[in-house]
Structures are given as structure tokens and as C-alpha cells.
From TrEMBL:
It comes from the Bacteria. InterPro entries: DUF6924. It holds the Pfam family DUF6924. This is DUF6924 domain-containing protein. Residues 29-168 form the DUF6924 domain.
């Protein structure tokens, strides 16, 4: 199966770890690969992420980061890597679980939680929180969180018992 990337909405970023991915002018959300032992599944998951999922052809607007410097990065480690002045609100991590679980649940990491009156703005109680999402629903999470149409909690509160968001019922 070949990867179909829509040049309008998706692109690959390959290179050494540096601040450039955190200081982009792009409004696309980052999808960072952290497992490099499942090449074919990585190709499949990219195709699933970029495939239009609705009658109106909504799709996730993403940039894929395929850089071995991120190998094994966890949500906790990611929080240490993101510069304080980054404008990213959330990131998708494609880890071993995403590449080996039958539903391919991708980890979503919250990088910004605004709380009125908080001294360290952006690092409220949901900063660093995670949930998983199936590729077929990434468009919903990415589109709505990016545009602030919905809040983090609206997705996190609607995960199944296994912690995976599979859509709203």
C-alpha cells in the first residue's frame, strides 16, 4: 500500500531535533513518529490519517515528523522538549501502541491549558494530559481543537473504557 499524502493538508518533516518544528508558521498539527520498528504500519497509519473521513471530506491538517531523534519519546519527555514559547496546543504521537494495536490509537498530548488567573499561563491542570484517538477520528480532534470549536475536555471526556476516542455517539 502506498502512502497518499494530500499536499494541500499534509507534509513530511525530516531532520535533526531542533526548535524548527516548534517555531513553524504552519497551522498544521504535528504528528510525531516515536517508533521506528514498524515501517509498513507507519505508512498505513499516515494514509489513514490523511484520508478524508466524512461526506464533506473533512480531514486532519497535519505535518508528519519522521525523525529518529524522537524515537522512544513519551508524552512526559515531549513536555520537556517543547519550548516555552511554542504555539502548539497539542501534538499527536505515533508510538508503539499506535502501530501495533488493531485500532491504531494515536496518542494526543495537550500542550496548552489556559486557566484564568494562572501565573504560569498555559499550564493548567490539563497540561500534559493525554488520550488516544483512532486515525479515522483525527480530523475531528485536529480540526476542532485547532479552531477552538471544542475544548480538550470534550474529547477526553468521550473516550471509551480503553481510553480511546472513536467519535461522538
Amino acid at each position: 500500500m502506498s502512502t497518499r499524502l494530500n499536499p494541500r493538508t499534509s507534509r513530511h518533516v525530516v531532520g535533526p531535533v531542533n526548535d524548527t518544528i516548534w517555531r513553524r508558521s504552519s497551522e498544521a498539527s504535528l504528528v510525531i513518529r516515536t517508533d521506528f520498528s514498524h515501517e509498513e504500519e507507519w505508512t498505513r497509519i499516515q494514509a489513514a490519517i490523511t484520508e478524508p473521513q466524512t461526506e464533506d471530506e473533512f480531514e486532519a491538517y497535519v505535518e508528519f515528523v519522521d525523525d529518529k531523534a524522537y524515537e522512544g519519546v513519551t508524552a512526559a519527555r515531549l513536555l520537556e522538549l517543547v519550548p516555552a514559547d511554542s504555539h502548539e496546543r497539542f501534538v499527536f504521537l505515533v508510538d508503539t501502541e499506535a502501530l501495533t494495536h488493531p485500532d491504531r490509537p494515536i496518542l494526543v498530548v495537550n500542550l496548552y491549558d489556559w486557566v484564568e488567573g494562572l501565573e504560569d499561563q498555559g499550564k493548567g491542570p490539563h497540561y500534559g494530559a493525554t488520550f488516544r484517538v483512532v486515525p479515522e477520528e483525527m480530523w475531528s480532534v485536529q480540526n476542532n481543537l485547532s479552531l477552538a470549536n471544542m475544548d480538550w475536555e470534550e474529547f477526553a471526556d468521550n473516550v471509551d473504557e480503553d481510553g480511546i476516542f472513536r467519535g461522538f455517539e
